[in-house]
Amino acid sequence: MGRLKLALAVFMILAISASSAFAQYSDEAGKLYERYLQTQKQKSTHSSTEKYRSPDIYGDTLKQPHGMSDSLLTYEDSLAAGLYADNRQNTEKDTLRVFGYDMFTDESANFAPPEIATLPHDYAVGPGDNLIVNVWGRVDMELDLTVDREGKVFVPKVGEIICWGVTLPDLEKRFVDKMSKSYSGFELSVTLGKIRTIKVYVYGEVKKPGGYTLSSLSTLFNALYAARGPNGRGSMRKVRLIREGRTAKEVDLYKFLLMGDSSDDIKLESEDVVFVPLAEELVAVTGEVRRPGIYEMIGGERIDDVVALAGGSRPTAYLGRVMVDRVGDGDSRKLIDVDLTEKPSDGNFLAMRPGDLVTVFSIDEMHENAVCLDGYVKHPGSYEINERPSVYDLVFYGKQLYEDTYLDRADLIRATSDGTQQIISVNLREVLSGNSLANVKLQPKDSLVIYSSNDVGRKRYVTIRGEVEKPGEYRLYEGMKLTDLIFMSGNLKRSAFTLAAEIARINSEGRTELFHVNLKKLIEDKNEMFDVALAEDDQVFIRSIPEWDTDRIILLEGEVRFPGEYALSYKGESLYELIQRAGGLTEKAFPSGAIFSRQEISQQLERKSLADIISKSAPLREDSNGALKRDLFLEYKPEKMNRIVIDLPSIMSTRGERGNIMLRPGDEIYIPAVPSGVQVMGAVASSGTIQHIPGKKPKYYIERAGGFLKTADEGGTRVVKADGRVLSWGKAKGRRVDIGDAIVVPTEVKKSHDWWKIITSSATILGGLATTAYLIDRL
Predict the structure, then answer these.
(1) Which residues pair with 682 in a beta bridge?
(2) Which contiguous run of DSSP H or E holds residue 39?
(3) Looking at the chain, which residues constitute the CATH 3.10.560.10 domain(s)?
(4) CB atoms closer than 10 angstroms to residue 307
(5) Dist CA 229 CA 99 (whole Å)
(6) Sheet (strand 273-276) strand order
(7) Contact between 618 and 632 (Cβ < 8 Å)
């Protein structure tokens, strides 16, 4: 019974699935008939319009380009085409691009067929076209029809109408003739809605080869655009359209690129193949042409044709020698010079070969009929020598010169026949006064350099140092005084000591003379009697007010009433006084553990170069390679030297009478809270903090930490007191430990011994002793 129920359940599932599939199929198959029944049920009235739409037979979406990824022209592609020798250092050659390849990849270019196109008058309707038929008059109707695969459309109450190969005007007549048999008193129009699509194939050397579904209005250019155009190896001049297995047309894209001639842009049909072969004959053109690049030849081109392809020569081109770099017959290359200014006797220039590199050089930029006026003049530059035959004429009778021009000498630089240059001294003062002997006649390529008085005279300077805003060296001007220099240096700082500025001056004998100036009377009282006229190389020193320091900040942290930053009230303020200013110590304070840091200590140590002294004091060791290295036995860190050990309990108990310390800017004081116990760390069984028991000695705390390990160096044990003092084991093991102290147990250093080396060395020493004893005995 159970098996029967299972079989029935399976049968019901299969039946439901089959029913669903049949319903789906019958729904698709009966759409046309269902639409027809709906139109029969609707009444034709003037207030409502009948609408009918036939089923589509093609998809609406055009397929996107597919196939290989984009490939750009590389140096290796050009090298494979035989364009270059191994001359990669030539930047211009390396950056040459194949002409025309950007036609289909440039963002500004668009060869896609328009979505709404102006139809050609001879457009023939075919399968997949969408027709919009509007009927008005006694009949009000709108028909949305799609031409089926047999080239027909179906119209309710009218029947089938053949459309394949018929133009729109003729098709409109067919609709009138057909519908007149069922309707009367109407007018209609037939327009094209969606245009049918066709399937074309683009293969060969294109960036995205494959099959494409395009609009029936598409041309060969549209197909190439869909495939992103030729790749770095594809031909631009021999694109073939293959229709029904044979080449229907060969298209040269250069006609469109160079002349705008699109007559070869043939309209495509379904199943057409656009094939782009390899570009076999390429030449490169560089230099003084309007459009340097790599160009494809179709055969028979000569050097003047290739220059024309590159846009022709520039006005600066030298056509008397155009160089062709060509692959030779063997394993070599050769150069050919061509004169494009004159045609050869046979009337034909040099024929091009694949791989040729054509270089058009520039004309000589040197002006043959010019002289140069340079330096301290109003209008420097090149001038025509025909109008400026002499120095007097070149300076425009003096109008080119400034008032402070140095007239006693100008330099005329002249090139000699052997390529060297000579300098000719010209006295402009004599030239302007009319002295014909001083007025030098100019020659082509001469260069006249004129100087200012400031350029020729020796530069004089003074220096100001110390408490000014911009200390440094300044130009000394005529009549310049001390107040002028102070103003130029940004004026005095607030910290400047104005009672006595010092001026150091070197006299004619080379000795230094010192002058002292009261700046207070000079600047504040404006007494010009104290203003000193400066001399060349004067050194002015503006001193700072003694003990001037705006940054007198002390940092006091920890267990005081008011921790924070404090400014020293006067020089020599003590630690005790500062703590009193901060409200004194709190009840939790642990003065024995106070940490006092002075930042200037590390700075003083660095000035003493202790790091170099310690490094040079380290012993030398020879490694296995015989190189000498130093063993640094001491790690030197200046910042760790800033702490000063103080006895704060004594300072506080004596009210600063004993152990007190004078504060300095930058000092930092930290007063901790009462610690929890005694720290034991290092080579013990368990490092940690042990509760403090008054009167107990270090051994008690070491035993509470599990005792010494086997690797412990008992003799190297140290006790670090809370105030920073460190006691050796010999002095500390018999003393009691205070709260806040730390016990450090180091690990014993094991020394390895090279016994073979010791034995060998010993044998050598013994042998030497024996030899010595023998010699002594022989004496």
Answers:
(1) 745
(2) helix 31-41
(3) 370-456, 463-542
(4) 24
(5) 13
(6) 210-215, 197-204, 273-276, 239-243, 246-251
(7) yes
The sign of the dihedral angle between the CA atoms of 166, 167, 168, 174 is: negative
Instruction: Compute CA 555 distance to the chain's CA centroid, rounded to the nearest angstrom.
Output: 45
Q: 518: exposed, middle or buried (C-beta count within 10 Å: 0-12, 13-18, 19+)?
A: middle
Query: Which neighbouring-strand residues pair with 719?
Result: 727, 743
CA distances from 58 to 161, 193, 222, 362 (A): 19, 14, 20, 61
The residues pairing with 481 across neighbouring beta strands, listed in sequence order, are 533
- Tally of helices (H runs) and strands (E runs) in the chain: 20, 38
Residues near 399 by beta carbon (within 8 Å), at least 6 away in sequence: 378
DSSP 348-388: --PBP-TT-EEEEEEPP-S-TTEEEEEESBSS-EEEETTT-
748: three-class secondary structure by DSSP:
coil
N-terminal to C-terminal alpha carbon distance within the chain: 132
Model pLDDT for residues 589-645, shown as the tens digit of each residue: 998 888 898 887 877 777 766 666 666 666 666 666 666 666 655 566 666 678 888
Q: Which of 36, 12, 16 is nearest to 24 (CA)?
A: 16
pLDDT of 636 = 60
**CA dist 107 to 14, 110, 206, 228, 359, Å?**
56, 7, 18, 11, 31
Asked whether residue 709 carries a pLDDT value surpassing 60, the answer given is yes
Q: Find, among 433, 395, 426, the residue nearest to 409 by Cα.
A: 426
Rounded to 5 degrees, what angle do the CA atoms 242, 246, 248 make?
60
Q: From residue 205, how far is each of 69, 199, 213, 268, 395 by CA, in Å?
A: 12, 19, 20, 19, 66
Select from 293, 300, 279, 294 the least CA-distant residue to 237.
279
**Tens digits of residue pLDDT in 406-445:** 999 999 999 887 778 899 999 999 999 989 899 999 988 8
* CATH classification number, 463-542, choose in 3.30.310.10, 3.20.20.140, 3.10.560.10, 3.40.50.300: 3.10.560.10
Burial 129-140 (b: 16+ CB within 10 A, else e): bbbebebeeebb
Between CA 156 and CA 136 the distance in angstroms is: 16
- Does this model's pTM top 0.70? My answer is no
Contact 746, 716 (CB under 8 A): yes
Written out in words, the top-level CATH class of the domain with range 370-456 is alpha beta
3-state DSSP percent of the chain in helix, strand and coil, to 5: 25, 30, 45
